[in-house]
Amino acid sequence: MNVINYKIINGDNMRKYYLFSIRREFYNVYKKNSYVLYKTLENLYNLKSENLVYGISLFNQICNRIDKTNINILFSQYIRINNDKYLINEGKEETIVTIKNPYILYNTNMNFPDSMGRIYCLDKYIFVIDFKNEDYFWLDEHIVLKNKYTLI
To answer: Residue 38 sits in which domain range?
Structure first.
């Protein structure tokens, strides 16, 4: 394993983002009140094992499964570590993307990695959470904000 991989997996100042595909009807409900969605997903993230059946049921009501086939195609230009894991090392971005059925996990050195914006073309209802830093946002809003202030 080279230095970049080790830093991405184990770095203290790395961001760990979970990207969830939210069902359209819940997107419409939580778009203006994302704090409630964040707290709901945080509670599911911290759920005790005895409540797991309830948690899975609630999660499946709110979130879609990740379309792994299309996401894998989207990231095919990057270094494939295994079936569902990619290394992105472009410019200043050092990221490992792990594609799971319930979410996409980003371990990255960036506050907003450029590669994250690519996912928006496949799914318009992505909610992003960094549980450790209590940070959350809708991917579409972040893309709009980032593009609004980008010099052309």
So the answer is: 3-148
